[in-house]
Every structure is written in C-alpha cells, then in structure tokens.
Design a protein that fits this description.
Elements lengths: L22 E4 L15 H6 L1 H7 L3 E4 L3 E2 L11 E5 L6 H13 L3 E6 L9 H6 L12 E2 L26 E4 L4 E4 L14 H17 L3 E4 L9 H4 L11 H5 L5 H12 L7 E5 L5 H8 L8 E3 L22 H14 L7 E2 L9 H4 L8 H13 L4 E5 L20 H12 L4 H11 L2 H4 L30 H6 L4 H14 L1 H5 L1 E5 L6 E8 L2 E8 L5 E2 L12 E5 L8 E2 L4 E5 L2
Parallel strand pairs: 1-2, 1-13, 2-5, 5-9, 9-10, 10-11, 12-13
Antiparallel strand pairs: 3-4, 6-8, 7-8, 14-15, 15-16, 16-20, 17-19, 18-20
This protein binds 1-O-alpha-D-glucopyranosyl-D-fructose.
1-O-alpha-D-glucopyranosyl-D-fructose binds next to loops.
C-alpha cells in the first residue's frame, strides 16, 4: 500500500460513486481542433466542456493523448508521462482536469500497458541483447533451421491484430520480438517485476496529478501463456496464440497487485478493463469488489456476434435481435449479485451503433438512435456514450481504400487481397465495420468542416454534418441529444435504474426488446421496437401496464397495443 497523503486527490469520490455515473468517451483526435492543424486537441476539449456538462455526463474518458508516433492513433505510447504535441501540453491537460472538476465532471485516462511504442526508450534499450531492459519485452530466436529474417522464420505462426505475424524481426540482434497488434506496438513482459513496478510508478504519478481513474487497454492480455514466457516450448506451427494470450495465468494476480500498489480502490478511482475474449466468469472474478481488481470490464461478446463463421477478418453476418439481447441479458444475470457491468454499443473501434444495430435511413435514424440509447441506458451497469452517439452520428459513405486511415482497415484490406479475395468483398466489409466510421470528426455545426477545425481535417468529415450536428440537435427538443440528456437525468434520479434487478421478457421476439428493472416496490418496464416495421404488443409474456406512467418515450403516447417502427417506452408500473 502506498503511504501518500490521500486528502486532496480523493476529493469528490465517495465509495461506489461510479455506480450512478454515465461516462462519455472522447477520441481527442476527432473531437475539436483548436489550432487549425486538422487534428483535435486538449484545448479543443476544454472549449467544449460546457456542451458535455449540458449533456449531463459524469465522467470523461480520453483515448490516449500521450507522446506517440501515432502508428495506432496513440495506442502506441513512447512517453507515458508527457502529452503528444499534436494534442497539447501537460499544462493543457491540467487545465482540462480543472475545468472538468469545476463542473463536477471526472476525468479518466486511457492506460495502454500491454504494449508500448517501439520508440519508447524502454524498447529502444531492449533492442540491445546485453541491456538490462532486454527482458522487459518478449524476444525469441528464429524458428529452428531457418535463416533469421527470411519468410517463414518467425518463431511461430501467430498473426498480429494489424499485421500478418505477431513476431517482428529485429535485424540488429537477429531475433524477433512479440507484438500482438503491430510491429510498432511491442508487448511488455509482465513476468518481469521491474516492468510492473515501472507501470505502477507511472500510474501513481497520474493519480497524484488529479485524474479520477483508468480505462485499461486490452488489460486481459498482460499475462502471457507459458510458451511466451519461456516456461513451455513454443510450437513453431502454433497459430492460435491470440486466444491463449487472453485471460492468462497471472492476470488476476497482476490486477490485484496493481490495485494494491497504486491504491486504485483506496482512492476510489474508477477502473474499467478492456477485455476482448472475456466471459461472464472472467468478469465476475475481475469485478468482485472483495477481490480488489477492477470495477468493470468491457466485454466484446455482443460486438463480435456478427463475425463470419471462419477466421477470415473480412467476413461478417447480421445478428438476430434475440441473440443480441440474449447476450446482454446473460451478462446482466451473470453479474446480478457480484461485480458490475459496463454498457456500450459504440466506441472508437466499432462502427456507429445507429448504422449497425439501428436504421440510419432519414426516416428512422432519429428514433432508432433514441431507442438504442433507451435500451442500453436502462440496463444495469455504467453506460458509456461515445462522442457523436448522442447526435445519432452514422457510418460514413466510404467506398475506396484511399478513404481509410486506420491501421486495422488497411491490414484487413491487404490480407483479403493477399488471400485472393475480390477487392469488392473487402471493401464491403470495411464499409460496414471499419473503425474509421467512429473516427470521422465530431459534427458541431453546419459550417465549414462542421466546426471541427479551421484547417484540413485529418480524416474526412461525414458529409451529413449539414443536417446531423450538435448545434441543430441542441435547438431541437425532439433530437437524439435531448433524448440522451433525459436518459442520463433519469439514471441520476432513479435508484431503480441504477440498482434495480434486470429481467428480460419475450427473449425470442425478433422485433421487441422488452425487460423490467425492479427495486423494492418499484418496477420499470422498457418496451422497444427494434425494427423498422410496426409491431403489435403481445398479450402474453408482459406485465400488466394498466395505469402505468410513461417516463420517457420516443413518440407521443399513441396506441398502447402497437409500437411504431423504432418506438420505445419506459414505463413505471403501478
Ligand atoms: O483494442 C483492442 C481490440 O482487441 C480491438 O478492439 C481492436 O480494435 C480489434 O482487434 C481490431 O480489429 C484496443 C484499442 O481500443 C484499440 O484502439 C487499439 O488499436 C488496440 O487496443 C491496441 O492498443
């Protein structure tokens, strides 16, 4: 346990404060530019702080703003204790923290410690086999019998997320280092206690600076399987390392150590672990408060249900509503008594929810964005709003590979072409699923570059900013923005929304998403038509709504027995 004085840094964070909070995720590069270089920055966020206060969110989570070569837009960090000049300075960040705190808003930093940048001084030193930092990363010789650096000589067949191989070649030492995402993002060796202590020291430095928590990037990948740590032989033909890298043998030990050494719980910081490949069982272990690991995790189950049957990156399929809502219900049930859920449809890695799960046609966009918000925000857990979700921002019309910027999109395209897939098929996948959709600049107004920048935006704006923008939304009492404000206010006011028990109704219905939330003698019923056709409310399988009070609906109260396309209602039962 650290012995630092806790007084000033713990201000405003009572026990469990995050259980009633709504988090807003900012992707700084695309939020607001203040200096005309076409890249969003920290002073830009501070300029928009009153917009965020007006929306009513409690916490801002900033995607990485640290020093970085920007191979993966900041998820490749070369200095954890400085700000990238593209985004501003440490003084700018201090000013943002102060401006947020003045408005009662907390600030969460992205913690990317599964890997660093290959430009981080630790890795630069590690390239020297004689250096004390060699063991801070994962190094292996070439496959036996192969000339180092030649095709096929990689220690095993594991693919990286953004490159064909997870083994990057270093010509100086003629060895390979493990980099699960890209060669610019070498994985740290968490087996080495000095690595862990260096990470914890860095975290303490940020906590002392006054931040309120961490979103932890791919945190369930930090404990590597025995083959990677050298405790078991590496099968040179193995290619499923990615799966075994998740939820590794020492994950919970490391999280408990981190919590202890940095005082995460002691200071009531909010912590959310991004955990691809996690299950309800992993989440229970991670978020059980008695185990002192994390407050909540981001599961990937509901955003990976649309993957195609094979392992090909570019395959995808539609997801039936019954499967989607069934998955969320499985997590609600699994964490009902122990632990806590995070709730999200959108983030910087996902296509826009309204285009993916809703209907982004002019006819249905507003109601489907509102209804998806209603459904998500009425589940139990901490809801995350991703910038622009509160405006019903849509996927961009991307048709050519030259329009994409994301390392992941470019890799999928290259991999598909290398596999002989017709380009059209790869482009169809990207048009539906690319991460670039989430990263088009925030649409503030109908003026030049949507008010995002006075320069040339780093990624083209979605042309629909002439109608979909914050300025128009804030003047329209029926906008998606207005609806999200009400959802956030409802969570703040209602103990049943915060803590009520969840029960899914009509699990097999392919149009209606229906559930109750109950606390004491209060029960809320959510009825949501998640389709673009009207639906008759079934006579069976739902509670009696006689005398129920409509707390929030997408439409003016109409026929109780029918829901219009994408109509939803939150009812308080009598
Ligand atoms: O994402 C981890 C992750 O597994 C995916 O969401 C990733 O986007 C996907 O594999 C791409 O196909 C986190 C960050 O959120 C993401 O932006 C980073 O690129 C990644 O880690 C590496 O730091």
């Amino acid at each position: 346990m650290t012995s630092r004085t806790t007084d000033p840094i713990d201000a405003g964070r009572p026990d469990g404060w995050w259980r009633s909070a709504v988090v807003y995720q900012i992707y700084p590069r695309s939020f607001q530019d203040s200096d005309g270089d076409g890249i969003g920055d920290i002073p830009g966020i501070t300029r928009r702080i009153d917009y965020l206060a007006d929306l009513g969110v409690d916490v801002l989570w900033l995607s990485p703003v640290y020093r970085s070569p920007q191979v993966d837009n900041g998820y490749d960090i070369s200095d954890y204790q400085d700000i990238d000049p593209e985004f501003g300075t440490l003084a700018d960040l201090d000013a943002l923290i102060a401006a947020a705190h003045e408005r009662g808003i907390k600030l969460v930093m992205d913690l990317v410690v599964n890997h660093t940048s290959d430009q981080h001084p630790w890795f630069v030193e590690s390239r020297d086999p004689a250096s004390a930092k060699r063991d801070w990363y994962i190094w292996r010789p070439a496959r036996p019998g192969f000339e180092p650096g030649t095709p096929g000589a990689e220690p095993d067949r594991s693919p990286a997320a953004f490159a064909p191989s997870a083994w990057a070649y270093d010509p100086t030492s003629r060895e390979y280092y493990f980099a699960l995402f890209s060669a610019g993002q070498p994985d740290l060796n968490w087996e080495n206690p000095d690595v862990r202590q260096a990470v914890y020291a860095m975290m303490r430095w940020w906590i002392d600076r006054g931040i309120d928590g961490f979103r932890m990037d791919v945190i369930n990948l930090i404990s590597k399987p025995a083959e990677l740590t050298g405790a078991a032989p590496l099968d040179p033909d193995g290619d499923q390392l990615r799966l075994r890298v998740t939820n590794g043998p020492r994950l919970h030990e490391f999280l408990q150590e981190m919590n202890r050494e940095t005082g995460l719980d002691e200071h009531n910081l909010v912590t959310v672990g991004e955990m691809p490949g996690s299950t309800v069982e992993t989440a229970v272990l991670t978020t059980d408060p008695d185990r002192h690991e994390l407050n909540m995790v981001f599961t990937f189950e509901h955003v990976r249900m649309d993957r195609g049957p094979g392992s090909r990156l570019w395959d995808f399929a539609d997801v039936p509503l019954s499967a989607l809502k069934g998955n969320l219900a499985h997590w609600q049930d699994g964490l009902a008594d122990v632990g806590w859920n995070s709730l999200y449809f959108d983030n910087h890695d996902q296509p826009r929810a309204v285009s993916r799960f809703g209907d982004d046609s002019p006819e249905h966009r507003v109601n489907s964005a509102k209804t998806l918000g209603t459904v998500l925000h009425l589940h139990k857990g901490t809801p995350y709003v991703y910038q622009g979700e509160e405006l019903g921002m849509t996927n961009a019309p991307l048709t050519e590979i030259g329009q994409y910027r994301d390392i992941s999109a470019l890799n999928v395209h290259a991999a598909a072409l290398a596999a002989g897939v017709p380009e059209g098929e790869a482009l169809r996948f990207l048009a539906a699923r690319s991460r670039d959709h989430a990263r088009t600049p925030m649409q503030w107004d109908a003026g030049a570059h949507a008010g995002f920048t006075t320069g040339t935006p780093w990624l083209a704006l979605n042309p629909n900013y002439d109608t979909i923008n914050a300025d128009a939304a804030r003047r329209d009492p029926d906008s998606v923005f207005a609806h999200f404000r009400k959802l956030i206010a409802l969570r703040h006011e209602s103990a049943a929304v915060q803590e009520g028990r969840f029960q899914l109704l009509l699990p097999d219905h392919e149009q209606l998403w229906a559930f109750t939330r109950s606390l004491g003698d209060e029960t809320m019923l959510v009825l949501a038509n998640c389709s673009s056709s009207p639906v008759t409310v079934p006579a069976e399988g739902l509670p009696d709504v006689t005398g129920a009070e409509l707390l929030l609906g997408t439409h003016a109260a109409g026929d109780a027995g029918e829901l219009a396309p994408w109509e939803s209602r939150i009812l308080r039962l009598r």
